[in-house]
Amino acid sequence: MRxxxxxxxxxxVLGLAGAAIAFGVGSDSWRYKxxxxxxxxxxxxxxxxxxxxxxxxxxxLTPEMLPLIEVKGEAVVVDLxxxxxxxxxxxxxxxxxxxxKLFSGKHKAGKVTLTPDxxxxxxxxxxxxxxxxxxxxxxxxxxxxxxxRKADPRRPIVDFKDAFGEGVSLKDVTIEITSEPVTWxxxxxxxxxxxxxxxxxxxxxxxxxxxxxxxxxDFQRRP
Length: 223
What we know:
Elements: H1 2-23, E1 27-40, E2 43-56, E3 68-74, E4 76-79, E5 85-88, H2 97-102, E6 111-113, E7 122-125, E8 134-138, H3 145-151, E9 157-159, H4 160-164, E10 169-178, E11 220-221
Parallel strand pairs: 8-9
Antiparallel strand pairs: 1-2, 1-10, 2-3, 3-11, 4-5, 5-7, 6-10, 7-8
């Protein structure tokens, strides 16, 4: 009787394992590094950030059920010295979607240079201690800028030259698969970020101004 119970238990475990494989239980993780290079009269300035994307399978009981995707990491920071600080945000497609758009298959590898129409949102603060002073920095050649101006007229948009001075421009943005550890450090530049969960305005709901619609998760995604 006891042997029979043990056998049933083993078969049950094996059955559950088989079902897990069949129905999509399990998870996969990848890390990618985004690097931003900016041209300045003082020379090239570079910043990078490593993020981790985890796809949790779970039991897929219906075709409509989607896996849970978790992103861990931060905005890219490019310190331009006396000219200011540039942030490349984690919002929109630039958490997990960009990874799957540019790298196919389970075993991802390689490095890609983004085209202007693939550039993420860049931002700067006129005053790093005041979230209300955030501005959207757009690169020359990004054809989406005019559409954004029309669709979102309250968003403060500046180009690299206006934001950081004559001779400053975006050189390139790259993304590559890596095994390096996830990087942290954006709070060095934005110490108030540690006290905010949700919109950087500190308000519980969004508003009309752009700073009222920018989320702390655009700068930092912690587990």
